[in-house]
Amino acid sequence: MITTMMKTIARPLAAALLAGVSLCAQAASQPIPHVFLVQNSGWMEPFYSDPKSPFKPLVAALAGSVVQPGDALVLASFNQAGEGAPSPRALLSFKAGEEPVRARVAQAIASLDTARKPGGAALADTDLGEAVRAATGQVLKGRPGIVWLVTNNRNSPNNDQATATRNREFYALIHGGDAIAKALAFPLRMPVAGKHYSANGLMVYAFAVGPQGAAALDALLASGRIARVITEPPARLKPLDRDTVRLAPRRVVNAPGVSFASDARGVLRADVAPDARTPQARIEWNLENTMYPYTISSATLSARSLLAGESRPIALDTQRVRALAPGQPAPLGSSMALPVAQIPDKWSLAALKSAGSAYVLPGRIELHLADQELALSQAFRQRMAALFPGDPLPDIFIPPARVQASTAVLPVEVRVHYGMGPLLALVGALLALLALLAAAAWAWARPRKVQVTVDEEMRTMRGRAGTTQAIHDRHGEQVAQLKTTLFGHRLIDVREGAQVRLGR
Known about the structure:
By secondary structure, the protein is an alpha+beta fold. The chain contains eleven helices and 23 strands. The strands form four sheets. Strands 8, 9, 10, 11, 12, 13, 14, 15, 16 and 17 form a ten-stranded mixed beta sheet that branches. Strands 3-2-1-4-6-5-7 form a seven-stranded mixed beta sheet, with helices on both faces.
């Protein structure tokens, strides 16, 4: 059921929080909810007053692309809260269905304009941290979700001109807060001119709350739904201590029967022949920095593999990386132990069960970067200076001093390919055994004919293997017994003096 948080823009967000929380609770078993915060303080004046401004269409297009049917959405404007002027203010709250999200959001922000301070003509100030805390703490209440913050990046509560200090406080909230698990920033070129100000760029932040929110944001990036609207690569703000580099195998040297490749899931797959017993694989990698916009100025490298339940160190050709720019590959050689002792023999039950397919040993490779020193890439600095001239933001993008180590994890699957030969041989042997058992059963059950002479009278008797029959003379007296086996017949319990024998 769709919940409407308010009918007009003037209704404060505080009065609509209960509806928003209820909406998130209803969606607890549904996809991750989205909270869109759109800045409308005085610094945003050119984005609203320029008739050619693509600002509002961008917000509507982004919401329409990332919010899918079943997702909960809360849309609010924000500046800085004051007496009689709460911030953020709710504009819209609903659960996405068949009606296009883009059209609903566009309608909700169509009449949105820059806010003014109560009781005067002065334009409202900006408090980025206040808006984010309201979204994560009051709307989501710590539940998983994604908060989208659309801003010109001028953080000036109470018209504070020390925006560098205010921005540092804002980034401390991002880096130091436990609520935000992943944070991305999309700096966009958007030249606009208004009556009072002009601007060159806009910033869109994506804050993922909780591990589930981070997973949902990763899925959005992988699906390309963000890139349909925002073509610029995201700048990573958090985390900076994991998934900082990517390993891509280039070739395997001196390891007959072993090949490496990456699949579509990003898993490193090692295809191994069942008779491969090479204890070491020489692998040459491409090491790529995935932490745009940071350059890894320096870091110490170490690596290990965890395969088949065993942890083994990986010998690297170099233990140091320097000046690795975002997206830039660097060659890295290594010697990696293969779990040959754990590969099942081709006659084992595990191998026979995997005949015609692959026996999979899951594991991972961990690459650890210690004494990590990061620096903003020069290209990013230049881009930020062009989009936000005079803004001290690039200096504040420098990561916290406590982030001095990171770990990159590469999932690995060792896949052993077994042919059908052993299985076919086993099936053939089993069929032969079954045939032998069938022949034996037939021979056991088949009646056998034998001639017995009693008192010079020849008789013909029939018996199955395992049976014993009494033999009587012409007076009806038992004179012997005929025992039949798989190997023939013999007389037992022959009465003394009786004239009885096998054959004529």
